[in-house]
Design brief:
By secondary structure, the protein is of the alpha+beta class. Helix content is 38%, strand content 25%. The strands form two sheets. Strands 1, 2, 3, 4, 6, 7, 9, 10 and 11 form a nine-stranded mixed sheet that branches.
Length: 297
């Protein structure tokens, strides 16, 4: 009975797969043979016949299955063209037993049509307007997923901090700290060291994370930024295409030339506090923001 239930569930799953008529019929054949075997066993038990008759019933089902094997078992585990291992959908569905690549080669028109449909869906998704609220508390930050993760690193030398004039990209023309994107298979700590070297020419050591920032822009861009502080460095300061680094007195940080959120959390970080900042921006204009002092990292 459990085998019958399994085969019927398999048949239901085949309904979602294209070009699966032959294999769906095959599951009906399998169900029929299993049902015949079950009826035979029940008959032997209820009639109190010799149990050896069960072997005869099984042999009959196997003989029928072998005789009609093309209908009973059209399933293949490897592509009949390139012999690549098939996934579940192509094993239980797709009557031709071809992998997707081989199928596309044999049906170029259908492959082109499917490709155009996928591109159309992607374009429609891109055109779907993203509604971002004006208030931080109106956004579900627990379910929020950033489209980019980056790092910001402040280097201190006695009473000075290293800042940059941003020359390209987001925030160009403004003052910021060195930083950039966290690459795949790279930790935020490693990214902080790498980006600092690329933008200033300096090698920093042992940067420590001071806080986290979450930015949601009205155009749909979402960024998570980790803020690091560093106190040891080596090398020679240099300018690059993206930034012009310069030393600035900590007491004279030019907040008026920086992103509007910086003045809300950087003074807290300079006091030694850890923080979580959450902000909504419309371009370079801050719409709303909130900063929480945290006890943990």
């Amino acid at each position: 009975m459990w085998v019958l239930i399994f085969i019927l569930l398999l048949n239901l799953s085949q309904r979602k797969i294209e070009h699966t008529q032959k294999k769906r019929i095959a599951t009906i054949w399998l169900c029929s043979l299993v049902l015949v075997f079950e009826v035979g066993i029940v008959t032997i038990l209820t009639k109190d016949l010799n149990h050896y008759w069960a072997w005869a019933v099984l042999a009959m089902c196997i003989i029928v299955g072998v005789f009609f094997r093309d209908r009973v078992w059209p399933f293949r585990f490897h592509c009949i063209s390139c012999h690549r291992k098939l996934d579940y959908n192509h094993i239980v569905g797709h009557d031709d037993n071809l992998c997707q690549d081989c199928y596309d080669k044999e049906h170029p028109e259908e492959a082109e049509k499917r490709k155009k449909t996928e591109i159309k869906k992607e374009v429609e998704i891109e055109k779907t307007p993203i509604v971002v609220p004006d208030k931080v508390d109106e956004l579900d930050w627990d379910a929020w997923e950033p489209s980019d993760i980056c790092v910001i690193t402040y280097l201190f030398d006695n009473d000075k901090v290293l800042l940059i004039d941003k020359k390209t990209g987001l925030g160009s023309g403004m003052v910021n700290a060195p930083g950039g994107h966290v690459e795949i298979a790279e930790t935020a700590n490693e990214a902080a060291i790498r980006e600092f070297k690329e933008e200033t020419g300096l090698d920093i050591s042992s940067p420590t994370k001071r806080g986290e920032l979450r930015f949601q822009f009205k155009d749909g861009l979402g960024e998570r930024a980790y803020v690091y502080f560093a106190y040891a460095y080596s090398g020679e300061l240099r300018e690059c295409e993206e930034a012009r680094p310069f030393w600035n007195n900590i007491s004279e940080i030019p907040y008026e030339r920086m992103w509007a959120d910086d003045i809300k959390w950087l003074p807290l970080a300079l006091e030694g506090k850890r923080f979580l900042g959450t902000f909504i921006f419309d371009g370079e204009k801050m719409v709303d923001g909130k900063v929480e002092v945290r006890e943990d990292d």
